[in-house]
Design a protein that fits this description.
By secondary structure, the chain is α/β, with parallel strands linked by helices. The protein is built from 16 helices and 18 strands. Strands 8, 9, 10, 11, 12, 13, 14 and 15 form an 8-stranded mixed sheet that branches. Strands 1-3-2-4-7 form a 5-stranded mixed sheet. Helix 1 links the parallel strand 2 and strand 3. The longest helix is centred in the C-terminal third of the chain and has 22 residues.
Length: 503
């Protein structure tokens, strides 16, 4: 970044721009890197006051702030000739600017492009900017022609005093963009995986009304997999007692919940049904739990060990149909795995007790069929948290995830990847990644001339399951490429010996 004392910039160290010797013209490259222009036509900085890019719709907010700080700028040139600026995201940036300048901003939003102006920026001041600053599309011009265009633009007196707006920080109700449907979360213990689900809902969940008049944050189709919980020796975190009570982690109430809700065929007085009632006495006569046990004993490879808890003749008419609708047992080797579907799932207040109840049921079926307890996979089609629980959910996520120091880098010995281990080496002029099973049997070998080539091959085959493992392998591949280029020895998980090279 080139600095100049005639320009005021918003968070200059964070939002990089190039400042030139000009005074009244700004040049925006949409999505393309401004350095492309500077390498091709370095003289352009003699004619523009500022050169930068949008990169995203958020860049429009930064542009507005810089224009308000520098009312001597009377023209903004938009150069969208670069290849990246012609992509969909680059086109959206150009459309956002054009619609902003054409007066489509309504209540701080341009709905057609998804642009939302920072609420700390005054709409009235923005109106002054768009009325006095001319937006000029120069995408059809060569870079040398842009300089000639600038020479024809009349310099005007500032149309207002510089204005600095308060920095905008997004509040807790901001929803991060995401894939929206189809999340998968793994964890050893119920509470380990549950807190990850809560965090994802609070971060990515759509805020929407419920049928009851309050609001919820909802993620759709979240599968959370509990890998190693033992209900006789439950893992109970050291959380405040009030939180434990709210989420259903108090021992006595949890014991009672499991025995009453999952293992008692008779619903309590005043209750239309319980899960145990639907499992042990479906339609008042049919024991579905026994059916699953008998089916597994009859044929271990069966796919018919299924229980359905939704009863159409009854539940189509009621205001409170079962949230848990489907259970299936599948055996893999000596392990008995359970798969569950919730049509609607109050994750914060019911998720933990539901998971422990299901785990107890899974342990019962495994014992009756002489199997090892495997994994419990719960698919919550509507995984939601009600607004009255948002504050506690945020505080718990901050304590358990956001404010905790990150764990050490990926450790193969402590908590390995279920898909295998990766051994990286430099052999001749090739970088080699040997993928072995978790127990060490060779699976596949991938080689390439560069770290990127090997990483792309591994990614296309989706060979690893954990983000921290992917990150670790990416760093090691890059380290291997550096070693190859410098001609020094490479050893996985050890620093490169660069002293001789540097000296």
């Amino acid at each position: 970044m080139i600095l100049s004392d005639h320009m005021n910039l918003y968070l200059a160290n964070k939002y990089k721009v190039f400042v030139g010797k000009g005074e009244h013209v700004g040049l925006c490259t949409l999505w393309d890197d401004p350095e492309i222009i500077l390498k091709a036509e370095p003289q352009i900085l003699d004619h523009v006051a500022i050169l930068g890019s949008l990169y995203s719709r958020e860049g429009v907010n930064i542009m507005l702030r810089n224009l308000c700080l520098n009312p001597q700028i009377s023209h903004v040139l938009v150069w969208g000739k670069g290849n990246l600026s012609k992509t969909p995201i680059g086109i959206v940036g150009r459309e956002t600017l054009e619609r902003l300048w054409s007066g489509e901003l309504n209540g701080g939003t341009i709905e057609s492009t998804g642009f939302r102006m920072h609420p700390t920026i005054s709409s009235d001041i923005v109106g002054l900017v768009t009325s006095n600053v001319e937006l000029v599309d120069v995408s059809a011009l060569a870079l040398s022609e842009i300089i000639e265009k600038i020479k024809t633009l009349e310099r005007k007196e500032p149309y207002m005093e510089p204005v600095m707006f308060e920095e905008f920080r997004r509040g807790g109700d901001f929803t991060f963009p995401s894939e929206e449907v189809g999340f998968v979360v793994h964890g050893k213990k119920v509470t380990d995986v549950w807190i990850k689900v809560v965090d994802k809902i609070m971060r990515y969940g759509t805020i929407k009304p419920t049928e009851y008049g309050n609001n919820q944050r909802e993620l759709q189709s979240v599968t959370w997999v509990v890998e190693a919980e033992n209900t006789d020796n439950r893992h109970i975190p050291e959380w405040p007692s009030e939180i434990k009570k709210t989420v259903g982690l108090e021992k006595n109430s949890l014991d009672k919940y499991i025995s009453t809700i999952f293992f008692d065929p008779s619903p309590p007085d005043g209750t239309a049904y319980t899960y145990g009632n639907r499992l042990l006495a479906y339609d008042q006569i049919y024991n579905q739990t026994k059916f699953m046990i008998d089916k597994i004993k009859e044929c271990e490879s069966t796919r018919r060990a299924v229980s359905v808890l939704y009863h159409p003749p009854t539940d189509h008419k009621t205001k409170s149909p079962p949230c848990l609708t489907h259970i299936q047992i599948l055996v893999s080797g000596d392990k008995l795995n359970m798969f569950v579907v919730y049509r609607s799932h109050d994750i914060f207040k019911a998720g933990i007790s539901n998971a422990f109840g299901l785990r107890a049921l899974q342990e019962h079926i495994a014992k009756e069929t002489c199997h090892v307890v495997g994994k419990l996979a719960i698919t919550s089609n509507s995984a939601h948290i009600y607004e009255e629980d948002w504050e506690n959910a945020k505080k718990l996520c901050m304590c358990e995830i956001w404010e905790r120091p990150p764990k050490a880098a990926y450790n193969e010995l402590q908590d390995g990847d279920a898909r295998g281990m990766v051994i990286i080496s430099v052999t001749g002029d090739k970088i080699v990644a040997d993928i072995n099973s978790p127990s060490g049997e060779p699976l596949i070998s991938i080689e390439g001339d560069s770290a990127k080539e090997v990483a792309k091959k591994m990614t296309s085959l989706d060979l690893l399951s954990r983000p921290d493992h992917w990150t670790d392998i990416g760093m090691e591949l890059q380290k291997a490429e550096i070693a190859k280029r410098l001609g020094v020895a490479y050893s996985q998980d050890k620093p490169l010996k660069l002293n001789d090279v540097i000296e």
